[in-house]
Automatic annotation (TrEMBL):
Domain HTH luxR-type: 148-213
Stored InterPro entries: CheY-like_superfamily (IPR011006), NreC/VraR/RcsB-like_REC (IPR058245), Sig_transdc_resp-reg_receiver (IPR001789), Tscrpt_reg_LuxR_C (IPR000792), WalR-like (IPR039420)
Stretches assigned to the Response regulatory domain: 4-122
Sequence positions bearing 4-aspartylphosphate: 55
UniProt source species: Actinocorallia libanotica
This protein's UniProt keywords: DNA-binding, Phosphoprotein, Transcription, Transcription regulation
UniProt entry tagged with the keyword Transcription: yes
Name this polypeptide is given: Response regulator transcription factor
Length: 215
């Protein structure tokens, strides 16, 4: 079955371009397009897509608030949302990730990375544009936020290694190669990290690593 995607962007040419690009990919179908965050929330509740692809800066309701309403901590059945932005260092991206977004890309990411992000979100994973992962998260690591939560159990030495690699934007296969372990072992360590940190996805794991000074 195809992954059903809802696009939200205030620029008609961007909506059209993203729709054409994604519809051309096997296994992906664009089921709706919104011009602002308020419409995105309405369409998401009406159409029940598998993944949302939201711009940050939109009228009436921005992408952060739309993400919070559809994927926030209090949402029972959160919609996997990938945030897209024009800028590789945007003050709103950190807020979007905190609001529940499963990752973000630049609008010039290209079909391959965009498709990969859609599939990752649909599978319960997250993807952040590798070129901006470290710089973006580090820029907001010491913002005025509450102290980072402590793990419910101490992290093992191997989990610490996986944690740092995730925060550096490495994929599971890259981490496996660097640490000489199998991808399935990486997934097991990542699952344990999420459990211990109370994180919903690898984005929150990466953010915790930066917030606690591990990067």
């Amino acid at each position: 079955m195809s992954i059903r995607v809802l696009i939200a962007d205030d620029q008609p040419i961007v909506r059209t371009g993203l729709t054409m690009l994604l519809d051309a990919q096997p296994g992906i179908e664009v089921v709706g397009a919104a011009a602002d965050g308020r419409e995105a929330v309405r369409l998401a509740l009406q159409l029940r897509p598998d993944v949302g692809l939201f711009d940050i800066r939109m009228p009436l309701m921005d992408g952060i608030e739309a993400t919070r309403r559809l994927a926030g901590p209090d949402v029972t059945d959160p919609l996997p949302i990938v945030v897209i932005t024009t800028f590789d260092l945007d003050e709103y991206v950190h807020g979007a990730l905190k609001a529940g977004a499963r990752g973000f890309l630049l609008k010039d990411a290209g079909p391959a990375l965009l498709t990969q992000a859609i599939h990752a979100a649909a599978d319960g994973n997250a993807l952040i544009a590798p070129s901006v992962t470290v710089r973006l998260l580090a820029a907001f690591a010491h913002a005025e936020t509450p102290p980072p939560r402590q793990p419910i159990e101490p992290l093992t030495a191997r989990e610490e290694e996986v944690l740092v690699s995730v925060a550096r934007g490495r994929t599971n296969n890259e981490i496996a190669g660097e640490l000489y372990i199998t991808p399935s072992t990486v997934k097991a360590h990542l699952a344990s990290l999420m459990r211990k940190l109370g994180a919903r996805n690898r984005v929150e794991v990466a953010m915790w690593a930066h917030e606690t000074g591990r990067i």
